[in-house]
Amino acid sequence: MRTPDIRILGVPMGIGGGKPGTAMGPWKVREMAIVERLCSTLEDAVIEDAGDVLAEEIEGISRLEQTARWCEALKVRTMALAGQGITPLVIGGDHTLAAGSLAGVASAHHARGDMIPGVLWIDAHVDMNTHETSPSGNPHGMSAAALLGLHVDHLDDVVGAAGRIDPTRVAFLGARDIDPGEQRHIEELDLAVFSSEDIHENGVERMVRDALRIVSPDGEPFMVSFDVDVIDPRFAPGVDTAVPGGLTPRQIEETMKLVGGHGSMVAIDAVELNPETDVDEQTSELMLRSLETLVRAAGAEASDRR
Ligand SMILES: [Mn+2]
User: Fold this and answer.
1) 160 falls within a domain
2) Dist. CA 278–CA 168, nearest whole Å
3) Is 140 a catalytic residue?
C-alpha cells in the first residue's frame, strides 16, 4: 500500500447469513471508535468514514436477489474508490458483500487494463457454494464462488466478467468447515487452501507466506477478505457461524502483521461480526485490533519503501 488512503464503508446487511445480528456490525465498530483508532496507528495516513452503503428492501424477491442488490450498490462505491487509488475498508455485514466489494475493485483494475488483484480469503469457511450445492441456502456461503465465475443466481450478474478474480491468485486461509460441494469446486478450480489445521501444525508465518506467494508473488496488488469467524469461538463468539478449532488472538495478530507488511494491499473486507451473539465485546475488540495491526503494518511497509 502507498501512504494509506482508506475509506471505511459500512454495509449493514444481515440477510445473507443465518442470523440478522451481523447487520449491526458497522454500528458497533463505529461505537468503538474505529476511525479514531485506525488513525492513531499511523501518522500520515488518511482514514475517513465514508458512511453506509444501503439497498432498499423489496418484498417478494429472493434472499439472493436482495443480497445482490446490496452488492451492486457496494460495487459501484468500491470501484469508484479503487479508480482513485483509494483503499476501501468494507465493514459488514455478512460475507455476501465480498461479491460486491471485491468485484468493484477488480473492475477498476480491469478498466485500467491492469492485472486483477489476488485475493487472500481469511475465513473458517471458503464460501464456495452455489445455490445448487449449498446445504443452508445462505448467500453468505456463495460469494467466493460468484467471484470465481461459478453460476450463482443474481450474484454472478453483479460480479460480471470484469469483476471476476483469477483462481490461480486466490488463497484461503484458516478454513475448517468445507461442504462436499465446495470441496468439488475447490478441486475443479484447483484452489489453494491453507486450513486452520495447517496453521496449527506448521505455524502462522510459513502458511501466511505460502499464501501470499500465491496471491501476490512479486508484490502485485491484492485484496483481503477477513471473516472474523476465522478466530476460534472461544475468543470470538460474536459471529454468525462459529466453528471450533480456529486461530488464537495471537495467531490472528501475527497473520495481520505479515499480511499488512507484504504491501500493495488494495482492498479490505472485515465481515460477519455479530454484536448480538458477542460476549463483553470480545469479538468486536478482536476485529478492531486485527484491523489496527493490518493497517499499521501496511503503513510501516509503505514508509520503509519511501
Ligand atoms: Mn465464515
Assistant:
1) yes
2) 36
3) yes
Q: Is residue 1 part of a domain?
A: no
C-alpha cell, 296? 499499521
DSSP state of 13: -
Report how many domains make up the chain.
1
Which structural domain, as residue segments, surrounds residue 153?
6-304
**127 an active-site residue?**
yes
- Measured between alpha carbons, how far is 207 from 205 in angstroms, rounded to an integer? 6
pTM over 0.90: yes
Q: What is the pLDDT of residue 175?
A: 98
Q: Which of 156, 272, 278, 292 is catalytic?
A: 272
Ligand 1: centre distance to CA 3 (Å): 30
Active site residue 125: yes
The model's pLDDT over 256-273, given as tens digits with 9 standing for 90+, comes to: 999 999 989 999 999 999
Q: Look up residue 256 and give its amino acid.
A: M
Q: What is the per-residue pLDDT across 97-145, written as a single tens digit (0 to 9) for each?
A: 999 999 999 999 999 999 999 999 999 999 999 999 999 999 999 999 9
**Distance from the alpha carbon of residue 277 to the mean position of ligand 1, in angstroms:** 15
Q: Is 131 a catalytic residue?
A: no
